[in-house]
Amino acid sequence: MVIRIALVQLKIAGAREKILKNAVDLIRIAKKEKFANVVVLPESFNIPYSEADFAANAEAIPSGETSKALSEAASHFGVHVVGGSFVERDRDGKLYNTCTVWGPDGALVAKHRKVHLCDTNIPEKLVVNETSVFTRGDSYTTFYVGETKIGLGICWDMRFPEFAAAYRADGCDLLIYPAVCDCYTGELHWELLARARAVDNQVFVAFCSPARDPHADLVAYGHSLVVDPWGKVIQKGTEFQEIVVADLILKTLPEARSQIPVLQQKRADLYELVKKK
């Protein structure tokens, strides 16, 4: 089996209605012209990433405007849509950075609340304080495309190897991370992290970024990419709006795992991964 994944490196600027229309148009192109099975949007895809604007743009799931647009797009075009992330407001008023997944019938099949919130302070380069806005998610999130089990993370989740290893232990073959990574740490770590998560766990890994907007509060690195279980980058974008398409040749998984059987060689007498939830 082959999964064709399309990473929509979306330009995120202007009013939410305009951004949603652009996203739906690109989902259509990814399915109808690129023939993708799975279409992925970036983190904070429906508004520019700005801590000052998150609360005002929060929505309920699945009744909000963004959920409805994603559900209709998935159903109309008959494709799995990994809806990047947007700000969710729950019944208690808490805010979450949440990724929704919609099946080809338009049904909500998964919802991932960002587990690891990004607090960084790099002098003169980057200050982010997500814990001042969001509540942390507390669960793993998986869904299936055919027989392929897929694990979800959002941006900062990618920096935690234990989280990815827990997904692999749970049988995932593909990890998808919508993300907004800044240019400074993106140049240092973006590809490195994707390749590390892939080769450590012998899975496919996809990072989906927004297109770069030099006028944004947080300027995204771009360069959405897909990595195979050998740690090879099989497709990578530029910094501009585009659709990055890659074919995931699933037979690569048993080949890598049988030829380099590191997961069978772990020393449970010395160390062990404990999945608590």
TrEMBL record:
Record keyword DNA repair present: no
Write down the EC number: 3.5.1.3
| Domain of life from the UniProt record | Eukaryota
What name goes with this protein? omega-amidase
PANTHER family from the entry?
NITRILASE-RELATED (PTHR23088), OMEGA-AMIDASE NIT2 (PTHR23088:SF30)
Name the chemical reaction catalysed here.
Answer: 2-oxoglutaramate + H2O = 2-oxoglutarate + NH4(+); 2-oxosuccinamate + H2O = oxaloacetate + NH4(+)
Ranges where the CN hydrolase domain occurs? 3-250
CDD domains noted in UniProt: nit
Q: Which organism is it from?
A: Culex pipiens pipiens
UniProtKB keywords: Hydrolase
Q: What would you give as a GO molecular function for this chain, any one?
A: omega-amidase activity
Keyword Repeat belongs to the record: no
